[in-house]
Structure formats: C-alpha cells, structure tokens
Amino acid sequence: GNKEITWMMLEAGAETDVVNSVGRTAAQMAAFVGQHDCVTVINNFFPRERLDYYTKPQGLDKEPKLPVKLAGPLHKIITTTNMHPVKIVLLVKENPLLAEVEALQKCYRVLDLICEKCMKQKDMNEVLAMKMHYISCIFQKCITFLKEREDKLDGFIKSLLKGRDKDGFPVYQEKLIRESIRKFPYCEATLLQQLVRSIAPVEI
Questions:
Q1: In whole angstroms, what is the distance from residue 4 CA to residue 93 CA?
Q2: Chain centroid offset of residue 111 CA
C-alpha cells in the first residue's frame, strides 16, 4: 500500500508482468485489494533505460532519435500520473530545453515509436500505448501554438482552461482529448473501443 516503496522497487528493476501462484500481476493484486495509488504507479512506470535506448544511434542512423539532454525532461512527463493536459503543458513550459519546436518534434516522434512498440510487443500494453499517444498529441498541439501564436504555450494553457459562457465547461480541452482518442492508430485495441463506446454517446 506504499506508493513510494512501489516506485523504488520499480526503479530498482522489479518486473511488472511477473505473476503469482494464481496468475495475477502486482497491479492486479493491488487493484483487487483496493490499493489504487499503487496500481497507478505501476501502470505509469516506464523504465528510464527504455527511453535511453533512443538516445543512441540505431541501425543505419547517424544521429540518435532523441538528444541525451531531452531524455530526463521527457521521462519526467512520461512517468507523471497526472494526465491533465494543462499539467503536461506546464511540465513542457517549465523546461526551456523542451519548450522548443525542434525538441518537441523529436520527443513526439519517439513517443509514437514507443506507442507502436507497446502495441506490437508480445505482451501488448494498450494503456501505456494510449498514454504515449495522448502525450504525443499534446506535444504536437504545443508545436502549433509555439509556431502560430504570440502568447505561445500560455495561449495553449488559456485555451485549455477557458470555459464556455453558459456553464464554464472547457470545450477546447474536451475536444483535444476526444481528438487524441480518435487519432489513436490501433483501431482493434480493446481500450480504444471501450473509450469510444463510453465517450461517443455523450454530447459535449
């Protein structure tokens, strides 16, 4: 029930897909006994080594896909458990290395590669794939604001927080999240189908 210890164990190399005598993983056992904070930590964990792989040239590449200086800031965003779009944009904004068009382009391409890997590996991880795709979509929207708006990322944050006149509902934020789900490239994913089923009938 201690999420800090769960995190320490994961960072020390604990395997998340090992099962116990009744075929349950640690996350499944934690969910079963109501330890939802621990489930969140396990499901959001992404080992730094898996990201560092992209900081070295692979195959015929002369350059790595991700500059070493971006690995730390990107890893911080990948492993955050608060998925609110404003929180993600603030994490981008607070790091000058990240808050640039070229840096974000490299980052979102790496996220797309990780998303693809999560879907194509033997033990498919749809949750992590969807998370990588979602962050990638937010990065792409950050790029648009950095290129086109004078107020840059502040303008993006304002758009996300602005409520409509009649009830204060943040329509732009809702549309962004729905659009990111719609753009998820793996139509056969169970998670995507569940999300679409629960969201599609609900009017904005």
A1: 26
A2: 8
